[in-house]
Write a structure and sequence with these properties.
The complex is a heterodimer.
Chain A: H1 2-28, H2 36-55, H3 60-82, H4 87-94, H5 100-115, H6 118-151
Chain B: H1 16-23, H2 36-55, H3 60-73, E1 78-84, E2 87-94, E3 97-104, H4 112-126, H5 132-144, H6 151-168, H7 173-195, H8 200-216, H9 224-235, H10 241-252, H11 256-287
Antiparallel strand pairs in B: 1-2, 2-3
Helix pairs in contact in B: 2-3, 2-5, 3-4, 4-5, 6-7, 6-9, 7-8, 7-9, 8-9, 8-11, 10-11
The chains are: A mainly alpha, B mainly alpha.
């Protein structure tokens, strides 16, 4: 019983904290009040999707791509429904998936390179590079994921 | 920058009367429908809207489209808009007449409420639901509108958002508390510095330093891994989400140059965060050996 409930609770908690993070950034960017519920939903669903996929063994980059894609689609949906630009939903929505911890780890290792003895420094540099590559690909996955729905728009452009 | 510059009423060009008499009613030629002074008002209003869009974090396409919609919706035959991340050039065409105006755009930030209101205004004009006077009144209202949320609420919710990040990164409850306090204080500092128009990178590095130093206090209540979580989570309040996402959108829509410039400012902001954190970590090591 617990074995089945365990992952569910993890994902629900994850969705909750992602929604809290999205709310903070929505308020920081002065998103309209009527958009807040949709932003919380987008942030929670996007991050929960990413966490669930990582838990079943998908790579972080692909999981982030899927989460961001979902946020992009939700943004498109809410833009049409509420006549609020999609950026209002997508930016606060994806921020919980920003790999802050990974980027910080890379920075810390690079700092270590400055003071460590040569053999340790080489090891640290290699590990920092791996972190940097992951951070870069995750950021790209975020950006591409939320932008995919735009690629398929077929409305006549205004300019 | 004076956003009402167009209202100051620069002098009416003397050549206009001549041009009008030559062109009006000529067979097969496009005819003017607007007085030259009307064209001036339209270009001023469109430029004002475009400027506010750029200042508040709209993508290049949204800025161009909305500016164009307001220009053509108010009666121009066409409006060409050249958008860069920090300037706008607009040419309004009416028959064979045209006016061009350039504007530098400074004080960039992020305010989604304004982007929403300006987009909405663009659609209203395009659908004929607003005339020049109404557009001017609404732009003035948008420009003067205070933010929707009280600054203390922003401080608290941003602090809470960073604390939520510490949970997402796997931190424990003491770290949650430390991050909440560190990020709230950092956010308050950011508001105070931004009010005083310090250099944006200086603001970011200073706020990262203060946040990082306070978050390092986590070492008094928990282990090294958790301290790192507290510092990383606190620094996320500075993450350049708007420049980076706008950069990606600009690239995808073909504004390659704008995408590069915005991506570069996002990268520089990230480096400023790193600089502040590096200093904070060194300081913390000296303070608590």
């Amino acid at each position: 019983m617990m074995a089945e409930l365990g992952p569910m609770i993890t994902i629900l908690l994850d969705a909750f904290w992602a929604a809290v993070a999205a709310l903070g950034f929505a308020v920081l960017f002065n998103a309209p009040r009527r958009a807040l519920p949709a932003i919380l939903l987008a942030g929670a669903l996007g991050h929960a999707t990413h966490t669930a996929l990582v838990m079943v063994g998908v790579s972080v980059e692909i999981a982030v791509l899927a989460g961001a894609l979902l946020i992009g689609l939700l943004g498109e949906f809410f833009q049409r429904r509420m006549r609020i630009p999609r950026v209002v939903f997508t930016v606060p929505g994806v921020i919980p998936m920003v790999p802050g911890s990974l980027a910080f780890g890379a920075m810390e290792k690079l700092l270590g390179v400055l003071t460590a003895p040569p053999d340790v420094a080489a090891e640290l540099l290699a590990r920092a590079s791996v972190d940097i590559i992951h951070t870069g690909f995750i950021l790209m996955a975020l950006a591409v994921g939320i932008s995919v729905p735009i690629l398929f728009r077929h409305q006549k452009p205004a300019v | 920058m004076d956003v009402n510059e167009f209202e100051r009423g620069d002098s009416f060009p003397q050549s206009v009367g001549f041009r009008r008499s030559r062109r009006e009613g000529e067979e097969g030629q496009p005819t003017r429908r607007l007085a030259y002074v009307e064209l001036r008002e339209i270009i001023g209003l469109s430029l004002w809207a475009g400027q506010m869009l750029l200042q508040n974090g709209a993508s290049s396409l949204r800025t161009e489209e909305t500016t164009h919609r307001i220009g053509t919706g108010l009666g121009c035959d066409w409006m060409d808009v050249i958008v860069t991340p920090d300037s706008l050039i607009v040419t309004a065409t009416d028959g064979e007449d045209f006016r061009t105006k350039a504007r530098r755009v400074v004080r960039l930030g992020a305010n989604m409420g304004r982007i929403t209101a300006l987009s909405e205004l663009g659609h209203a004009v395009a659908e004929g639901r607003a005339d020049r006077a109404q557009v001017q009144a609404r732009l003035r209202a948008i420009d003067a509108a205070p933010k929707d949320y009280n600054r203390w609420l922003v401080v608290f919710l941003v602090g809470l958002a960073c604390a939520a990040f510490s949970r997402l990164f796997g931190g424990d409850w003491p770290v949650f508390g430390v991050t909440l306090v560190a990020a709230s204080v950092a956010m308050f500092t950011r508001q105070e510095l931004e009010k005083r128009y310090f250099n944006r990178y200086l603001v970011v590095a200073t706020v990262a330093f203060i946040g990082g130093l306070l978050a390092s206090g986590a070492r008094l209540v928990t282990d090294a891994a958790n301290v790192n979580i507290a510092i990383a989570a606190t620094a996320l309040l500075l993450v350049p989400g708007v420049p980076l996402i706008n950069s990606a959108q600009d690239f995808i829509r073909g504004y390659t140059g704008n995408g590069l410039r915005r991506g570069m400012s996002g990268l520089l902001i990230s480096l400023a965060i790193a600089l502040g954190l590096v200093l904070a970590i060194q300081f913390a090591q000296v303070l608590t050996p």
